[in-house]
């Protein structure tokens, strides 16, 4: 198992794969960017703990910064596209009852909770997409949105890498370690959804 994980993540290309996956999942939330980040961090943990994996395993700090930077860039691209096509985006969202409801609820929460909920929404399924596209469509000022987006990306990347790293330290580079870490990431997402939904409507 150690060798197979090392073969997957023991190349500098892992940073490209992570960056593309994280950047694009603002548009395609089904992409397993969190799983990829956790898997790379698990391999890095196993390499530092046992030395049995290729020395080319990802660097933890570089992996965290790569994922965080890709998250911010993806948010910025989505924000700018929505800014330029706000009316078309509103019509597209209006066709989906689920997306409309999600946008309304998250918009209400952001109006009351401010930037802190931009960070929280980063952990919720599709929350990043709704926040970035919604901020652009509503023509929110970049200086009010992007700093919180950067902090949200760093928090998510740090949490995901930490899950994979410590899971790998405790359980080794096994699918069990990766699975437990992914479940913890999903748990954080479920908690974020709960808090956002419980946020009272603004007056």
TrEMBL record:
Q: Name the GO cellular-component terms.
A: plasma membrane
Q: Does the keyword Transmembrane apply?
A: yes
Q: Where in the cell is it found?
A: Cell membrane
Question: Where does the chain cross the membrane?
Answer: 12-28, 60-82, 145-167, 173-196
tRNA-binding keyword on record: no
On the tree of life, the source organism's domain of life is Bacteria
Coiled coil (residue ranges): none
Which InterPro entries has this protein been placed in?
DedA-like (IPR032818), VTT_dom (IPR032816)
> What PANTHER family does the annotation carry?
INNER MEMBRANE PROTEIN DEDA-RELATED, TRANSMEMBRANE PROTEIN
What protein family is recorded? Belongs to the DedA family.
Which named protein is this?
Answer: VTT domain-containing protein
